Amino acid sequence: MQKLLETFLIGVSTGSIYALMSLALVLVWRSTRVVNFAQAGQAMLSTYIGFEIASRTEIFWLGLAGAITAGALLGAGVDFFFMRVLFKRAVSGPAAVVAPVIATLGLLGLIRSIVGLIWGGEFKSIEAPASKDGFTMGQTTIPFSALNLLIIATVSLILITLAIIFQRTNLGLSLRASAYAPEIAQLAGIKTARTRTIGWAIAGGVGGVAGMLVTSYNFLSPYSLDLLLVFGFIAAVIGGLESMVGSVIGALTLGIGLTFILNYIGTSLVFIGGFAVLIVVLLLKPDGIMARGKVRRA
Amino acid sequence: MELWLEARCAVRKKIAFFILLGWLLLFIGDRIDELRVYQGAQIAMYTIALASIVLLTGYSGQISLGNGAMMAVGGYAAALTLNKLESPVWFAFLMAVFFSALFGALLGTAAARLSGPYLAGTTLALAVGLPEIANQFAFLGGVPGILFDVGFPPARFGEEFTQYKWFFWIATFLALLSLFITSNILQSRFGRTWSAIRSNSLAAELSGIHSSRMKILAFTISSALAGLAGAVLAMTISLVAPGAYTLTLSFALVTGAVLAGVSSLPGVALGALILVAIPEIADVLSQGLGGNEKLNNYLPGLIVSLLLIISVIFTPNGPGENLRKHHHKKVTNH
Amino acid sequence: MIRKTRRRGTWLAATVLAAGSLIATALPAYAETGVSSREIKLGITLPLTGAASPGYNKIGNAMNAYFKYVNDNGGVYGRKITLIQKNDEYSPQLSIAKTNELILKDKVFALVGPLGTANFTAVHKSVGLAKRGVPSLFLNTGFSGFANKKSYPASFMILPSYAMEAKIIAQFLKENHAGKKLGIVYQNDEFGIDGMSAFKAAGTKFDVTVAYTSGSQSAATAQTWVSQLAAGGAQVVVFLGVTSATAPLLAVSAAARYAPQWILGSVGSDPLTLRALGVPVAVLNGAQTPAGNPSPNDTSDEYVKQFQEINTKYNTGTAFDDYVLQGMNIGLMTVQGLRAAGSNPTRKGLISAIESKGSTFASVGYSPLGFSKTSNVGHTGYYMAVMDANGDRKPFGGTVKLYTTDSGSGPVVLSTFNRPAMPAKGLPSNS
User: Fold this and answer.
1) pTM of the entire structure?
2) What are the tens digits of pLDDT across the range A162-215?
3) What residues have CB less than 8 Å from B1, skipping those under 6 apart?
4) Which residues of C touch A217 (CB under 8 A)?
């Protein structure tokens, strides 16, 4: 019983970080129809910047703020300088299927190489803002720590903030409108291009948070966020790329599922377990869990 | 009647071309040093792997980030056949093709309804997850993997005929064979059908094409090619291990295909050459820039990524396209 | 028709150009492979980056620092030693690719200190080191299989084998931890299994056994190891794995308030690296480990003192720890080997020189070296050590009690061997 509870709690903590990543991916997908593999690269760069700030000031939260800012600027920059150029050029021929994916993959590799050239490949670590000791209840200590709790709290805060922005503000309305029907939105006076860039900025900032949270308990290296990308992407696909709520549900499902596999079956089957979850969901619902009947496809 | 004669003539010409190319490569193989011979074998391997991408993505329009996993299936099938059944080498390669085709058919069936990012995501998960299975079952060798020994070259070739040259011969032969077969498939009814599905699947269905069956076929053949490439890779490093078939490999394959033109079969040779040449060029560059550790580790990746981005932005359909456009302009501008 | 040929022509031209550039970047060859009148080229593959790199990535630079010191003092019969390091990220495939580069492109004279059990096994077979006659000196791995002269005619170990280590730990467990519940965590490949088989042969019974896949170590997976150990009530836990796996094991155990008696295998026990990876020094306090060398902080030892000086001068910025010590020692052994091969060294000459004279070389390790015409065995023994509250390593029981044994069924004996003195100023003058 205790193991069940432990597994569930850790799963929620892990899944909540995937949720940030998958949310960022969905944000970008909905506004640009592109899966941004470079998201992991942006998150990585933002995290390194956050690491620099955190290790100099010795305050994790300052580092986090730095990562968010860097992530937002980076996200906006990528959209403005890179994506717009890309879309003007690659629209026809057999490569149209592949070009945006390849471009963002290329960008991921580029950012990774730049990070490696600047910081090198050694593992770096950040002082966690909360203790990693498990909570003790009487004789037993469960592996769920204050840090895990903090992660869940932080992610929840961000999700609520995003929900408020999207549902209650004019900015949110513009974002949703530009993603759903760009031509009509433009007619209604919304500057769709600028709104899209803002969407990318938000996604970038969210990615930065994800990176910092992962690094609070794992080492930082140019490859340390790859897993986050893979699982974030799988989570987004499971939830259906059209729905932000779906991506969060997908991420939590994935996180809990993978932790169960880790604890009950063994470490070697974690990835293939993720694949199995994905395939099962897509076989039943090719557009993801939360997909409604008719979904907009550009 | 005349059309059929023309087709027969074209096939004969093609056979002649490939045989000639084969002799040329063998001749070159005798004149260059061992490192280049070894790299030649790698180029041949990549050629087969890239052909699988051209077929799947360039022609049938299905994006896959997991061809590395298909290569793994082929590699392991070949190694297990060779070691456990003590079979001759050619049979091992045949099993590689067979099992990866089977796997591809299964994957294709599951993936037939998926498109775009959903398909990308699924194949991505496969690429990451499949090699892990080797860690779970002892007979698959775990992380260190299983040895794959095709044996020494036949004694009649003499003492000077090195192991790597033998690899080169086998790999080149298989590459030429695969290219020949693939080129015939792509120029046939199948190739045209795939192009039709890729351009407009609704119209294709309306004209009677059974699109999901064709898509599954594309996956099957593409995986068979990838599996063969995987077996050839195993031969060149005498090893099958999960670390040889990473996500990075899958990404490299898509990169190579895009760089050379994702729908152009002749381009795969160039793409393969680029994939093997880049680490070399990066090495030379980083030595020239001072040769420190960071440069050595990250410069190749930088060059590849830059090349990729530039090529995707400026020549998304491969360098051939720009020349075509240019020629078109010239022709239409008088 | 014209358009088609032109397109094919473009492809052909581009391909030929690219092929040309590939051939053009080939380097010129030397007279005797890797040896010229001014230089001897050596190569090493090791994990400079990646999951297994912490700690081990210092070995290459340490070796290089020692070589630079020797070069500044006349080199080897006037030739300077150049060490080419290649990063293989502990992955056997990359080791093969990089070793191919070292041998076929850089054309090194010999490989020195290649790191990793699975890596060297793969390289030896795939690159055909034996057939090519390329010497591999002083491997950075203790897999006992490498001592087999028939299978590895041109390779020499330096570390005591993992089987020897396990036998010595087994005896230590019998003498000092009898009656307690034993647990073991080991890397599930030849590296870890080498030790496990020796434990089995020695009759050690473990109450909890945890095998993990190389590369899977992380905070999350270490959590599962600790759960199993704690559930099984293990009071003494032996660990056979790399340093980047020791770290999460110890850190997670501390967080879970699980504190058995740790016995850390020599490969993954360097305290400095562990602390850099986040293990609190309080956890290290009292951990036991087999050691073959003096502690890297022991400046009363002549080898350590000399190596530290070289490190300060030629490897500035790197803290002196077990790996730096090991790297420099391999450098010392290599130079002695090169000198013994004479003023016109050949690969065959180098191999027979080490076979015949290697057992008398000066090395920081306390145990005798076992090189001979029939054996590749390097050092042959360990003493047990304990870490103190500063993370420093001190001999268990106060003084060094060296035990020697073999990788087979031979007994574990207390040794009275005295190692050779270090050559003056750390510069060998043997021939």
Assistant:
1) 0.84
2) 888 888 888 888 887 777 777 788 788 777 788 888 889 999 999 999 999 888
3) none
4) 219
